[in-house]
Design a protein that fits this description.
By secondary structure, the protein is mainly β. It has one helix and eleven strands. It is 5% helix and 39% strand. The two termini are 26 Å apart. Bound molecules: zinc ion (2 copies).
Length: 135
């Protein structure tokens, strides 16, 4: 992927990311469902150094099932979820496909937390499904 760009709904937060994401996945965990207000989150993991964010973010410190923290960052103006940093994945930053300027280029390769996927969600493709976070 070339440089990708994106931003929040109101436009106060913008970001760019360089290079290919280390992973692209779909997360069905209840916390992503709640935060997104949707059935799942489409997440792209990048090295922190590859991502530049302009604009102010607010942080909500969430707890994963590892007991470790997740820092969920969002636009304080419009509430769009922008990035997540996870203590168990140091050096990585997670972006959400829905905030990209062109989400059509995103190709998820796996689904995680399928144990809490909504029963009516059925996605095409050949994605591997993990009941929780793969080890
Ligand atoms: Zn905003
Ligand atoms: Zn999740």
């Amino acid at each position: 992927m070339p440089e990708i760009s994106g931003g929040c709904l109101c436009g106060k937060v913008r970001f760019t990311a360089n290079g290919d994401p280390g992973f692209v996945g779909i997360c069905h965990c209840r916390n992503c469902q709640r935060q997104s207000g949707s059935a799942f989150a489409v997440v792209l993991g990048f090295p922190v150094a590859a991502v530049a964010v302009q604009g102010e973010l607010k942080t909500y410190t969430d707890t994963g099932d590892s007991g470790k923290s997740l820092f969920r960052r969002f636009c304080p103006e419009c509430g769009s979820s922008i990035s997540t940093e996870v203590e168990v994945m140091p050096g990585m930053i997670i972006l959400k496909a829905g905030t990209l300027d062109d989400p059509s280029t995103v190709k998820p390769m796996m689904q995680i937390y399928c144990d809490s996927a909504q029963p009516w969600v059925s996605l095409g493709g050949e994605m591997k499904c993990f009941p929780k976070m793969p080890g």
